[in-house]
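Notes from the 1:1 (GR / supervisor)

We went over the backlog. Supervisor wanted to see one worked example end to end before approving the batch request, so GR pasted a single chain during the call. The sequence is below; no edits were made to it. Supervisor asked that the structure be written out right there so they could see what the output format looks like.
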Amino acid sequence: MKTVVIIISFFSVFIAVGQKSQTLTDSALFDTFVKYDDWFEKNREQLPLNGKCVVISKEQYGKTYKFKWLEGKMKNGFRDSTWVGYHENGAKKCEVNFINSKKEGKEIFYSARGIVLRENNYTNGRKTGRCWKKQKRSYAAGYYLFSEEMITDTLADKKWNGWEIVFFENGDTAHCYLHKNGTDINREFVEGRLERVVYKHEKEYKVLYNAPTLKWYQKKRLSIDFDWYKDKKQKLLDILDSLQYMKNIRELSLSFQESDGEAYISLVNQKIIKSGITKQLKRIGFTSFLYKKIPDFIFECDSLNELFLEMNLAEIPAEIIKLKNLGMLDIISYPGVQLGKSMPRLLQLKKLAHLSISRTVENCVPPSIGAFTNLWTLNLDHEKKGLDGKVVPLTKEIYKLKNLHFLGLPASLLDPALLFKNMPDCGHM
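Structure output shown during the call:
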């Protein structure tokens, strides 16, 4: 039996069978969006009629890093027996059995740590029966059941008959789809109550049913776009005066222009504090390139989970530690945040799972980043060279973030061996 080894780089695929070799252009298989089935259909003519096939992915990080991406057997030009895909750290990513290139039995997907994330069932190449998928939790470790399908019949063009249920992270039903002959009926739920039913067929949408509670749900969000109003300043003040009666609001988004002035923004800040809604807010967005400090009302929101700031912020103030429930902090600052002064304060936010700061004065990741052991996503600026032209290496402390699932840094800065060994779940920009 012959073994075929295929090496994938950014520019080419090298195929060796005995003494023969061929080259074709392909994208790097390191890209997680390259699907195994799509890759096979594109390259099937280059594969052997019979024998074992091993696909090696080759990614450039300034250094060469290779890993086994896929392996399986070919029989008479078709995929046969079990085919297995792999993560960058060498752990199994998926496996499925083939008979004459048609999937048969269970198709299972794994995380880089070996957790089963998805399971599909096939009979003679057709998806059937119960299929399910898990998704990462937002502010805690682990996964939750995201969707479940019960397929009664598979149709042409990848359409199927049956039910599909999508869940919220707390286990409540978010959507319930009925698929029948190319038509979808979507039942949308909010906090256990049916909100509306949407009929979809091709490009046609119809709302068949709206529950009265839909209006109540929409009141939980308050977003002000001042361009909507002729007398925008007074309109906002009128709305803020009525906030005390809006006990269901959980999200607040405010955006100011330079012409609004600091005095006006300060007045808005006072009215929000006076309204008494700060204790119930879970998510806040604040945009103002005129205002140079985080408004005081934000630090009274001790139940706050998500904070988005776009402003002229020089450093993160000490008051940030009051937000003990903060799980996500996203900052865009002009000209940039002094990260060195801000890090000790951020480290006191024990529930912080997502941190993104665009534009920092230092333009590099500090060594103290290794203390953020609970982070799931991290996005910080790091230039390869400082203002003096000298190379600024990425701190090795970054590889202590073992729970990280996303790292917003260029691949050329990273050591792939350390990345995949210590942070197997982590993707990057």
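Supervisor's comment: The first strand starts at residue 3 and ends at 8.
Batch request approved.
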